[in-house]
Amino acid sequence: MSRKNWLVLILMLLLGGGIFAYSLRNTNLHEVSSDLATMNWGWFLVAVICICLYLGLEGVVVKIFMSNRYPSFTWKDALRLPLIEQLFNGITPFSTGGQPAQLLAMLQSGVDGGIASSVLLMKFVVFQSMIVVNFIISLLIGFHYIEEKLHVLSLLVVFGFVIHLSVIVALLMVMYWYRFTKRMMNIVIKPVRWFVKPQRYDKIKYSLNEKVDSFYKESIKMKTEYGKLAKVAGVTILQLLAYYIIPYFILLALNIHGVNLIMAMSLHTLIFMIISLFPIPGGTGGAEYSFAVLFTAFTSSHSKLVVAMLLWRVLTYYFGMFAGMFALMVKPDKVKNSMGV
């Protein structure tokens, strides 16, 4: 990690600590200690297992994609990738650092850059698609609740959904209507000339066209791997379900019973969408606020709500970042020659 990344990581830890302290400002610390002392650690262990499954199943996805490209790509390296992704997603705005970090990690293992980019691209397409599917279901189940609780922020949820859906639609258009999509893209970006210098505009246009061309070439390969994509989609759905169910087990760990499982998962799905729209790394601030507001209906105890929020944040954000720091220290295995797929 660069010095800048270390500074951002330290800043996010300090900011997170500040938010935790702020959340506890009106909370009886005796009640908090009592809630922790009477916790059902068995249910909390299940929540820990769920976040491990979330990260581990992404490693399974990597292994599936690499199986006929680099059979020698080890499970250690496959599981290392999602941890590195979590770290760099957690310290960059809009989680933009995860993809480049994964690419670098694969290059360190000796994977060809083109193959590495192809695998990461396919993983991204499937993951985004499953997010949209899960979000549509959650929107139908829990949007009336989130609209009542978050008011204006509910518009952010819809906006987030539109962005994720637009990404999928754009990728599908490149795959099936390449020439038309490329022509439309070059028309749409023309107003950019009004705000930047000609050289800058040409550079942006060239970069976008190059990315569209690259994705189209990779999509041709993707069309021949529908069986593999279906298998990965199944694993990704399980991965997301393991993530979305975490708040339910945390509430059970705090002896909060009578929680509607489907509603809890749906609300967590909507929070996931809200977090993706906050420019601060990890959605810090917005994540904690959204959880506290949406899950307040499940308990009348303010201290339990705050403890649930803190435990949830530790598992879904800080756990992945610290695991990623450990993964960075693990020396990757070198792959043998690819099979040229």
TrEMBL record:
Catalytic activity: L-lysyl-tRNA(Lys) + a 1,2-diacyl-sn-glycero-3-phospho-(1'-sn-glycerol) = a 1,2-diacyl-sn-glycero-3-phospho-1'-(3'-O-L-lysyl)-sn-glycerol + tRNA(Lys)
Pfam families linked to this entry: LPG_synthase_TM
Main location: membrane
InterPro entries assigned: L-PG_synthase/AglD (IPR022791)
Transmembrane segment boundaries: 41-66, 124-146, 152-178, 229-250, 270-298, 310-330
Localization, UniProt: Cell membrane
Major enzyme class: transferase
EC number: 2.3.2.3
Keyword Disulfide bond on entry: no
Keyword entries, A-Z: Antibiotic resistance, Cell membrane, Lipid metabolism, Membrane, Transferase, Transmembrane, Transmembrane helix
UniProt membrane topology term: Multi-pass membrane protein
Family membership noted in the UniProt record: Belongs to the LPG synthase family.
NCBIfam families listed in its UniProt record: flippase-like domain
Function: Catalyzes the transfer of a lysyl group from L-lysyl-tRNA(Lys) to membrane-bound phosphatidylglycerol (PG), which produces lysylphosphatidylglycerol (LPG), a major component of the bacterial membrane with a positive net charge. LPG synthesis contributes to bacterial virulence as it is involved in the resistance mechanism against cationic antimicrobial peptides (CAMP) produces by the host's immune system (defensins, cathelicidins) and by the competing microorganisms.
Protein's name in the database: Phosphatidylglycerol lysyltransferase
Gene from which the chain derives: mprF
